[in-house]
Fold these 2 entries.
Entry 1:
Amino acid sequence: MSVENRAPQTVTVTGAAGNIGYALLFRIAAGQMLGEDTPVRLRLLEVPAALKAAEGTAMELADCAFGLLDSVDVTDDPAQAFDGTHHALLVGARPRTAGMERGDLLQANGGIFGPQGRAINEHADDAVRVVVVGNPANTNALIAQQHAPDVPASRFTALTRLDHNRAVALLAAKAGVTVEDVDGVTIWGNHSATQFPDLTHARVRVDSEWKPALEVVDSAWTDDEFIPRVAQRGAEIISVRGASSAASAASATIDHMRDWALGTGAGADGSARRTSAAIVSDGSYGVPEGLISSFPATSDGGEWKIVPDLAPDEAALPGAGERLAATVAELESERDAVKELGLV
Ligand SMILES: NC(=O)c1ccc[n+]([C@@H]2O[C@H](COP(=O)([O-])OP(=O)(O)OC[C@H]3O[C@@H](n4cnc5c(N)ncnc54)[C@H](O)[C@@H]3O)[C@@H](O)[C@H]2O)c1
Ligand SMILES: O=C(O)C[C@H](O)C(=O)O
């Protein structure tokens, strides 16, 4: 079907005037998220103080003369921003500031993600896809989902694709191969320092032959360097760059939404390509049902699906099971905290 004949898809980006928003919007308008045959209608949601900056971004979007860009609307009204939306990218969040307790942070984000969830419930397209990027991403996604009782829970997800991409890049560099020569990495659990980047079912292609990753890199490097480096990469970027990751976070958000909407497809050897996504648990792998946790995942272009039979292999990496349990326990404690605060 030609571009002229396709109905535009509405994409809402919150926090549109922020750093990730600026790195995200131009790529969406260029067709990198929904494909080069799908026109997009952009809705930019911001707080009143940042509306002028968002208007400036909208002016630049117009100046790019993107063939796929149908329209850009800027608003501070969630009802307008989510009206009929097909793709909701929830980036804007309240960052933790000096002296702020964890409860204060959750409360402040509850004030953002509760109303946005409600607005999605009332105004979004029935088949809306939501990804939460703003931290604490998994729990913010849970808050939004709990305020949208008419939207299937599976339509709310959180971003762990950045952690996944970081893990793939670090393993490829250590093994001396390209990222195309790595597959089967999984990020489990929370987008936080407790996450478990798991190599126990990963493979690396060396000299045209696929080998278990843990035969190519040793378990000491995995335990002492790989896992902590991936889990703390966000903090490392903040300390080196002086600001939270922005372009890489935007790129991972595009990867997550594109794979969800268009499918994960086949991997390097023709088998189903899997990635990592924080999606609602159906109880798989001992993760309590309803938590939004990162899993090995595929999409056929409809729903994300949790890939079975990939439990962390304790024999290949002693302590793997405990690592999964620890990150899930953190998600449970965040869920309990927001319940106590009356946010879900
Ligand atoms: N999940 C991930 O992998 C990942 C990676 C990097 C950053 N992040 C998180 O993404 C978030 C955004 O990062 P950033 O660098 O773009 O921050 P930023 O401070 O540059 O931008 C955030 C924007 O959100 C806006 N905002 C705040 N409340 C809003 C609301 N209620 N509605 C609409 N907009 C609102 C702010 O005005 C601001 O323009 C942060 O929470 C950050 O920690 C997540
Ligand atoms: O913003 C942060 O705290 C870090 C971010 O989530 C990241 O992983 O880069």
Entry 2:
Amino acid sequence: MKRRDEFGLIRLLTGGQQTPDTLASRLVVGNGDDAAVMSGRTGYDWIACCDTMVEHVHFARRTMRPFDIGHKALAANISDIAAMGGIPLFYLVSLGLPASFEEAEIVEIYEGMSRLAATYHMALVGGDTVAIPGDGPLTITVTVLGEVETGRSLTRAAAKPGDRIFVTGPVGSSGAGLHALLACGIDELPERWQTIAEAHRLPMPQVTAGRVLGESGARIALNDVSDGLASEAWEIAEASRATLVLTEDTIPIADDVVAYAAATGLHAQEWTLYGGEDYQLIGCAPPDEQERLTRAFQDAGLSLHWIGYVTEGLEQVRIRRASGEEALLAKKGYNHFQ
Ligand SMILES: Nc1ncnc2c1ncn2[C@@H]1O[C@H](COP(=O)(O)OP(=O)(O)O)[C@@H](O)[C@H]1O
Ligand SMILES: Cc1ncc(C[n+]2csc(CCOP(=O)(O)OP(=O)(O)O)c2C)c(N)n1
Ligand SMILES: [Mg+2]
Ligand SMILES: [Mg+2]
Ligand SMILES: [Mg+2]
């Protein structure tokens, strides 16, 4: 495999990057110096987050194309900004490259990121490039900087007894898609399962939803679904010191996930509750805000699904079945060391 040297590769990857007009005046020193310098805006707080994707852990040749890897690495980070109610602005990318990825594929990874960055008018302002020895895994670490109106960030700790729980869209599609991709491979996947596979490969972060929630001015607890609905609900319960009760039959699930479960004889619940990587937002809001928020989402062309309520009690998550039966919901989801 022939590839440019480190500096040639950096030039190739960053050369064509555009800074959107909205950010040009705020980028004091762009890519190419020791560090980037950006100016903050009066009336806003900075938001910063960072997530890594590792080959064989977050993706494999069988499940994702290079374009998808770039898209998802940035999407996962934008999702964390969305979960704070913020606006994504700048990003940095650290690449660990094994010899198994060709130059054209690395360029494709960047295309996946650039395409998504353009959607949100974001600018790439820096990064790092290193070799991974032998046939080690490709790693990609993305850092995103965003902003939110001063004091308006939405945290996991704001839920209170009496609140209603919402989710911004169906969950389980990514987990079902991953199952289909691992079973068939990306090149052999039947057309029938392409939509769930796409939910896994090219998830869209819910930035507009996060903004609508923030701009409502309501008291809102918020988290994004990266590790699974159960796991994220548990994080809210613990941060807010309350009990979250999910009503099972109100959790939105895509028809294709139901169909895939039927076709494989598997339980869709494993994906809806524990699958992860849907990048929808789960949150809690006071009951008297329910109607107003639902309408605000409708006006923005989005949907909001009410899936439970918050009660006083232990920091825990319970699930209420259609039968009325209630049980503790397993604190289970994606966990790197289990
Ligand atoms: N190695 C680390 N050093 C410092 N902070 C970390 C590290 N790993 C995770 N964190 C922080 O711990 C929190 C939980 O991480 P994580 O579960 O990955 O969040 P998320 O699911 O939103 O990406 C986050 O606030 C994250 O910034
Ligand atoms: C090949 C492959 N195997 C398994 C998975 C499933 N998986 C890997 S990481 C993950 C959860 C999200 O990743 P994490 O690093 O925990 O993101 P964070 O919560 O930090 O945003 C899931 C469901 C996958 N995406 N691809
Ligand atoms: Mg993380
Ligand atoms: Mg998160
Ligand atoms: Mg995690």
